[in-house]
Amino acid sequence: MNNLNSSKHDGTITTKVVCAICFLLFSFLWLYWLQADSLAIAQHVMSQGVTHYDKGIGTIIFLIVLMLIQFVVAHVAKPPRRTYALSYFPSLLLLAFLSDLKVDENYEVSVSTWYWLFPLLLFIWGVCIWLARQVLPFANNQRQYVGVLSMRTWLNLLQLLAMMLIVALLSNTNAVYLNSAHAEVSLVTNDYDEAALVGGESLETNERLTMLRAFALSKKGVIADELFSYPVRGTAQTLLPMTVKPFMLSEDSIWKHLGARPHSQMPLEYFYEILERDSLATPAVADYRLCGYLMDRNLNKFVTMLPTYYEVADSLPLPRHYKEALILYKHQTKDSKIAYTDSLMEEQWNILQQLKLDYKVNTERRYKIFKSFQHTYWYYYLYE
Predict the structure, then answer these.
(1) Mean pLDDT of all residues in the chain?
(2) Is the pLDDT of residue 8 over 50?
(3) Does this model's pTM top 0.85?
(4) Which has the closest alpha carbon to 269: 296, 237, 295?
(5) By the 8 A CB rule, do 172 and 234 touch?
């Protein structure tokens, strides 16, 4: 009899330990790797910039709180052994709530749906706990319920996995939002390489992420070579924090990079003219202004202003996107005044034109051009 009770006790302990390890591992990875930047943005906005979120310390604190909640729930609710994992549901629900905190366009943390969703899910969980206690036995003497690979352990792990999937469904997993948050946190720590690369493999972006990436590329001095290597959204106006503003990064860091902050809302061209007239403009203004023309597909203005900042001659180098824009403009307008040529760029242009002739179906043509020219200004001009 003692051996049997010992086996039952060992089986219960094993199940609890396995569930705890899986829960802690999942929560740590979720908080530290996926949601840390989003939580940093949310805390910054809620505290109005007074406090700073450290993902290492924050993750540890959250894990302690979540485990304490589970400990209390397990002792109060007393779920049957085969549904012991249900004691983690309130902790995982809180984890989902924290992971769904996002800042909206009004710069407020949005939690509207959770006012009714949180109590509803807790009520459903309570019903499940009650049913489990009514239907399932509190103990089972079969050997299959003892050990790490026992049926009881696997049943609890399946329940835990289902609840983890619920966390993923309820949390904010929007790639563009998370990439923007990561870019801002990277810029705050002056990690311009990381800020420029984040989300680089994704085809999704928005105006805020484009603004943040442009700032990072400009700080690295490669904005005119690499901006259109990534997905780009917005206009010359949204390239600066005028209508679209960062959540966490100080606007002044971008304005200082250009030379000065405008005292009031003003047309972008007027702002650049004031900077240059008053000798406040930094070298970054040239590429911000020219790349803004390219974003607006204003090639006439770009060609007019380019000689103001760069000497345009065959023997002198130009940033890659400027060369692409000149070749595009020259072939579109047949303007003989554009004397700039680049043999390699001309060869690439001819390949692009041949692809347009070879593929008559628009979707197929776009796909073929995308594969070869997605990182060029040409693709942005034609399809974005």
Answers:
(1) 89
(2) no
(3) yes
(4) 237
(5) no
